[in-house]
Amino acid sequence: DWIMGDYIAEAVEKIRAQVGKEEVILGLSGGVDSSVAAALIHRAIGDQLTCVFVDHGLLRLNEGQMVMDMFGRNFGMKIIHVDATDQFMGKLAGVSDPEAKRKIIGKEFVEVFQAESGKLTAAKWLAQGTIYPDVIESAGAKSKKATTIKSHHNVGGLPDTLHLKLLEPLRELFKDEVRKLGVALGLPPEMVYRHPFPGPGLGVRILGEVKKDYADLLRRADAIFIEELRNTIDPATNKNWYDLTSQAFAVFLPVKSVGVMGDGRTYEYVVALRAVQTQDFMTAHWAHLPHELLGKVSNRIINEVRGINRVVYDISGKPPATIEWE
Ligand code: XMP
């Protein structure tokens, strides 16, 4: 609409005035905020922007390729893809405590990003997809001693060791405004309206020690779940179940149970499905998904993902459970 058009024109002018002819780097995570920030800044300054996309190996199925296709090919952005899977897996080997895992992933992420950014010696600016709720939250965290249940690692926040000037064009926007802006800038609505995905990614959806094999199994199970949610319409609302849930994903349980396949016995891993409805993610209800949908997802996962022979559905509310299992 025209209001958004005006907003974009104004924001573009502001970025140009701020940055001038200098170079900008931005850490692209594939999430909504950094994606919209990238699209907006690219609209303003084109090739003066370089994005660094750190792939920690804990992304969803084909996510890295999707990010590269969309920003590299469609938008024609300068983008550096760092596949740091082995490095992250190496650091995570033998670590099973959830908070320790979060800290390792957060620290490693910063290190990889900074090493890569350090090579871009012309850069004077660090762009971040900080949005208004982040600004309030960090102000609150400084003034209050927050009681942390989980130390949220968000790939947006980076310590200032690169001594770059900060460019944060989304600082005044709420999430719904960021989404509208993203669509107006030409990002696909399916990506702009995606469920939230935690910074540590599948690292907190593989219980205990993270292994690449586990991540590969989980990615495939999760993709089947999401595909079926998107393809199943609820007749009462005429919406699909992806849009009717606030967050939905598969969790890898590193325990084996016995199954039967053909004439043989199997002894394989378990996947839990989690789907919740919530306004604010502080409290949440488990989603009452149709049994036929759950049955279809379970059948498909067990038939298509060798290595998983049992699927369970999580019916815990928050509180007392949290949305993620770690
Ligand atoms: P919980 O599991 O605490 O999650 O009920 C609430 C919301 O926060 C997300 N979450 C995270 N997001 N880094 C993030 O960026 C994290 O470490 C993290 N842990 C949980 C979770 O996906 C849910 O939307």
UniProtKB/TrEMBL annotation:
GO terms for molecular function: ATP binding; GMP synthase activity. Keywords: ATP-binding, Glutamine amidotransferase, GMP biosynthesis, Ligase, Nucleotide-binding, Purine biosynthesis. It comes from the Bacteria. Transmembrane segments: none annotated. Pathway: Purine metabolism; GMP biosynthesis; GMP from XMP (L-Gln route): step 1/1. It catalyses: XMP + L-glutamine + ATP + H2O = GMP + L-glutamate + AMP + diphosphate + 2 H(+). Residues 2-194 form the GMPS ATP-PPase domain. Signal peptide: none annotated. It is an enzyme of class 6 (ligase). One of its GO terms (cellular component) is cytosol. ATP binds at S29, G30, G31, V32, D33, S34, S35. Its EC number is 6.3.5.2. Homodimer. Catalyzes the synthesis of GMP from XMP. This is GMP synthase [glutamine-hydrolyzing]. It comes from Parvibium lacunae. The lineage of its organism: Bacteria, Pseudomonadati, Pseudomonadota, Betaproteobacteria, Burkholderiales. The gene is guaA. The chain holds residues 207 to 532 of 532 of the full protein.
